[in-house]
Here is the input.
Amino acid sequence: MTTHLKIDFVSDVSCPWCVIGLRSLEQALANIGDVASADIHFQPFELNPAMPPEGQDMVEHIVQKYGSTPEQMQRNRENIRDRGAALGFTFNMDKRTRVYNTFDAHRLLHWAGLENRQIALKRALFAAYFTEGRNPSERDVLIDVATQAGLDPVRAREILESDLYAQEVREREHYYGEQGIRAVPSVIVDQKYLIQGGQPVEVFEQALRRIATEARNSRV
Here is the structure.
């Protein structure tokens, strides 16, 4: 008997470890398809909510925010690139030269959830930023990415040119902040189990098997 799980994936589209976490989670779910299935709902989290429209140079941002040395940055970039490659995702680090505000991307993701296209848009946004080096705060980029994800470009533009879904996104951000979420990715299963970080496939798989077993036993 397959146990169905609800997964809230709290993340930002400018977070490389969120890419790794999502790819690992999806692979883990594929591996345990005989045990559990899941609906993944993407919840908003902004790593840099005060980022100005023009963004900030990547190196300057990392030094300012984390105090990293050039050597530490290089090791981290190589680790992210290698982890991504092992999961079938390409990180083109040389193309990602700036950090941007992601609030509008989260507004589109909220809308995409209503249209049952959320996971397609999330994947397209990750590819646009991390693989292609595009600006996820630029309106035309967001409309193009939304179109790639199977969404209506006219409606996407209408949303971006208004404040639609801004309140909903702020409310969700506030809610998860109140729940103590301070870092992403944060994977919340059935609103009671928390798995944090860009974990390896086997870590997600082990946790999901245990959660599915507990859920199945509680329903007996």
